[in-house]
């Protein structure tokens, strides 16, 4: 290799190889989570990685339009997009090929999505996703189900002790709408809420009064769900905001009923980052500093069907999940047969030439008198 | 929806949704085959779907260059390709990130590949692939291993009774080279061999004589491996072709030693369709008319490392594999808990609202006195 050739190890920024043993761990995690989805009646669909831009970016797909790679289809001469999110594709399937199926539809998916640019916090441009969508059901119990199925999927791969963060992305817009807030103030208020600047929020709320007066107390109540719900209950809210608060209370009661021990926080005034959600929105955090493991919530699917769903991030789950003991590797000498040991959970690694030694083949075990015995570390 | 909008169900030609239950079946097949690979010591890697064109199309990647979608990376301003084959990416990983690992390396992968155009026989432009690569081993036993691991993977998903078709894509070129055949005749001979036109091949062989005289007998011997090997053994071959024949005999002996009952055919004069293979090449056919399930064989990996591998086609395997009984679906009334039944293998489908009936939720079973009982078909 000469210096003027590009280094073949160099991949585009944000695109990476997953190597052993992580690639196998990630695949195993995904299938274990999908098994939980299937056990709750979610049926798997597999939309293609590429489809026409106009169907890919319809509905909730608009939220990722600027993050979507486009390319020309030489067959149809039309623009195609490489999916940046799977939810819009599942919405398309529900509205077209499964239009005649009874509701609610429970669908699940696992696959890769690609993004034009990474962010500083999330530099990856290829991300695995595994998720559930419940389409055609408006009940608070549906939101509770998708949140808890995600929690159970995480528990199935060893990530217990998660916390569920609930936000109501339509509440603040409903308050501003009811208060008739003009655009410049709307932006100032949005910024203050986004920065969690309580002094600024309080000063705006006191100056404007009316329905905005509720904001400082709601902001202060952010935290454990019970306290935040009590603050919502006590606040003076216009009818649209009251309906949102009551729906949140119903969803949280349904979750509590099924998972009394789950740690739940509620941030009533957070509204950024959920661009197409129309009701409660969820984020699942792993224990410690392991970060966001899943996101979801209520939205409108195609043809304005009520829908709710959760998308899990297997790359983040991989970092949060415990590492299983590596598979033991049994050296099988030239001409010997390892079938019996594969049935016991060994990877059998066959010598194919005289130079293939247990050390070269990174084996942990070798055959002695027909038994698999560990190889001493010093050899 | 108005008539002047494109039909959102319309996907680009060759791109399709996999729906329930096929999407789950395909995923289960892939993971079952990957488990066989892992049990033989093949470690999973997951290269990205996109990488720089120049590394993606290096080596064996050149064979799929014209089938590779390209797009501009806005970050690096360099061209990227959407992979049309996974083998070149595994070769890159072996030559770069795993360059220091002892040989042979056993790696496996599963994922999607995309093609610019489908063919009449294979219209799909997105294809799943799952395969093994054994890099850095030149022994005939390595070729035998990859072929038999693929056979075992197919058996693991219920596709038994496969047949292994062996070809020697370098044999005819070696004979033509040794005979000093001029380009026009080379093309005529290639065409005649490709059409299996024995009259034409015989007439050329008789006219030219020399090393080409062996061709009619080799062509006639195509069929069960033993007969074809005997014809190769009996033929008068120049040294390069003799070495190819002897290697084939060694590989087939190694396969026979491990799988005496496997049906093997050998076509010594077939040489099309394997564009980067340097030794024996394999095609696995399913029983009946189920077609090609896998392809592979010996090639040179990056830095001219000897390598061999097999790529299985999960979409074809899905058509050939037996269909398992569908998962029973148990209706769980509002407020009841299905956990016990999920542990027994049921999909539990929860009612979320009063209108959710067993019929609407397509359930096969309902709870009666705490037991899951089948729902009578007429209801």
From TrEMBL, chains A, B:
Keywords on record: Amino-acid biosynthesis, Cytoplasm, Glycosyltransferase, Histidine biosynthesis, Transferase
Pathway connected to this protein: Amino-acid biosynthesis; L-histidine biosynthesis; L-histidine from 5-phospho-alpha-D-ribose 1-diphosphate: step 1/9
Entry keyword annotation includes Transport: no
Protein name according to UniProt: ATP phosphoribosyltransferase regulatory subunit
Function, in words: Required for the first step of histidine biosynthesis. May allow the feedback regulation of ATP phosphoribosyltransferase activity by histidine.
Residue intervals passing through the bilayer: none
Assembly with partners or alone: Heteromultimer composed of HisG and HisZ subunits.
Any GO MF annotation of the entry: glycosyltransferase activity
Family designation: Belongs to the class-II aminoacyl-tRNA synthetase family. HisZ subfamily.
Organism: Roseomonas nitratireducens
Primary localization class, coarse: cytoplasm
Ranges of residues in domain Class II Histidinyl-tRNA synthetase (HisRS)-like catalytic core: 14-317
Glycosyltransferase found in the keyword field: yes
Subcellular localization: Cytoplasm
Additional free-text comment from the UniProt record: This function is generally fulfilled by the C-terminal part of HisG, which is missing in some bacteria such as this one.
